[in-house]
Amino acid sequence: MKVAEKDVLYVADLANLELSPDERPRMVRDLNSILDYIDRLNQLDTSDVAAMAQTSDRFGVDQSKRGSERFAYASRDDIHNGLRESLPRDEALANAPESDGNFFQVPKVIER
Amino acid sequence: MDLNTLTIDAVRCAIAEGKTTATRLAESFYAKIEKEDQAIGAYLTISKDRAMAKAAQIDAMAAKGEKLQPLGGVPVGIKDVMVTRGVRTTAGSKVLKNFVPPYDCTAVARMEAAGAVVLGKMNCDEFAMGSSNENSAYKPVHNPRDLTRVPGGSSGGSAAAVASGMAVVTLGSDTGGSIRQPASFCGVVGLMPTYGRVSRYGLIAFASSLDHIGPLAKTVKDAAIVLGTIAGRDPMDSTSADLPVPDYVAELEKPVRSLKLGVAKEYFGEGLDREVRAAIEFAIQKLATLGCEIVPVSLPHTEYAIPTYYLVATAEASSNLARYDGVRYGHRAQSVRSLSDMYERTRDQGFGAEVKRRIMLGTYALSAGYYDAYYLKAQRVRTLLTRDFEEAFKMVDAIVTPTSPTAAFKLGEKTGNPLAMYLADIYTVTADLVGVPGISIPCGETREKLPIGLQILGRHFDEATILRLAHAYEQARKN
Fold it and tell me: What total number of domains does chain B contain?
């Protein structure tokens, strides 16, 4: 078994998930079954293989350029041409679960 | 007018010739949805005000004798992972139950600018995570061909609506097969363009290095028309490629004679259903009779695609879904003790089991001590998968495979076993990891009358060739 219940609780904490006591055994079981399957990647020797985060890392438009300059994402048109207008405040707050009309409201962050 | 067989050109002709109006057409689609969608469950939200306003605008233009736009008056559906200004967008999740976006997804805006009438938002697996549409927090979608079976996923609503004539075309999204696999299960055409071909601005992020938007349609030509409409650089998405967009419809008519088609043995191994294999082999023969040269190729790392995918996709998802914290929009848990309690309970209440499982797996794969063994390892194998395709595409112009190892399975058949569900994507995930375009087209039926899909994969940014092959095959199959 790769992960035990205590590992599941640790990872749930990292992910800000509160797993109910009934959800935990199923999560332990499912993660172990998936991780066992994933183990087959260790059949491959990848010590000399570069990691790939994006397909466009390899398929840039301009092959003569290096690194990020090869890609469209090297430039942010909205910033180059001056800052884009942001959403009006009322629209930005329209979906807020709690707001005072100026800010998003949340429970007290700092406990005394 | 038979809504079940209506194509984009047929709609435009009928409106231009005065046989119908965009308004009457939208009304007949809504009547059909009212009557038939109860049993299928393809729609999550109807956007009638927006649709009727657009239809009226199209009719006013037509009345003035103006030329109809490429999608003028065409009723379409949008997968509910693309945001629509003023129209509720849920991503199939309870966490976004009442979310009304303040802006439009670029692909949707481009569809409407080309004259499309957006009927509503299509059901899907929660945050596009699933292969059967059973992970929708609202309701499952039933396959129109057999209501006891799944439509595939995650764009199950988008595929079912096209298959049952409740939209002429729809937009879906594909991160591991979510356009092509449901297209295959429902007997329609589904196209995943090259990574970067279509802007993802306004697509609710699942796995950013894998997410694609593309069309589901009844014909290859309709898919080509929609791709031409939504493709191209968008300043709002820095990953969208600054490349010219070909006239895909004109490309369809070019000959396929002497194109080289790769067949990879790795896509015909254990787990492939006998009837599916026979249909695919028959389709390959058909392509050969059209003058294509069939060339055996090898994609040796194929068996590592699913484990690689479920590390890369979940790692990215765990990061992307961190934003659902109950602060700025979406669900917020009530009667909480503290801010962190609010985060945890909001997410526990808002997310379904599969989404939690993927967040957990992704967080684990990125966590201290496991990053190298899992996430980095998967990124390295992703390079190997990419090299497989680079080598193959030195020899061939396209690769043909089954879209899915089986036809549509029964509702509930795989819900208890996440790994079995993941394996439903075994022939589709690699294209997402490698970023090449892929199309699924109907190529036959099982004895139980369930559709089978043929997948054609192409070189980066060469949608034109796979569309051309798919079109030639579709026409040949008709005759």
Answer: 1
Whether A76 maps to a domain, the answer reads: yes
Burial of B469 (0-12, 13-18, 19+ CB in 10 A): buried
Cα atoms in the 13 Å half-sphere on the side-chain side of B421: 27
Write out chain A residues lying below 8 Å of B317, CB-based.
none
* Residue B454, phi then psi, degrees to nearest 5: -100, 130
Q: Which residues of A touch B330 (CB under 8 A)?
A: 95, 97
Contact across the interface for A97 and B243, Cβ inside 8 Å: no
Selecting among B178, B184, B199, B404, the annotated active-site residue is B178
Taking the CA of residue A30 and the nearest CA in chain B, the distance in Å comes to: 7
What's A25's domain CATH number? 1.10.20
Number of domains, chain A: 2
The ipTM value here is 0.91
pLDDT digits (tens, 9 = 90+) for B347-366: 999 999 999 999 999 999 99
pTM: 0.96
Structural domain includes residue A50: no
Domain of residue B237, residue span = 8-251
At A3-53, the pLDDT tens digits run 999 999 999 999 999 999 999 999 999 999 999 999 999 999 999 999 988
Q: How far is A65 from chain B (nearest CA, A)?
A: 15
Q: Which domain holds residue A81?
A: 59-93
Of B103, B311, B328, the CB nearest to A38: B311
Among candidate residues B47, B54, B79, B404, the one labeled active-site is B79
pLDDT tens profile B320-351: 999 999 999 999 999 999 999 999 999 999 99
Q: Are B452 and B276 in contact (CB under 8 A)?
A: yes
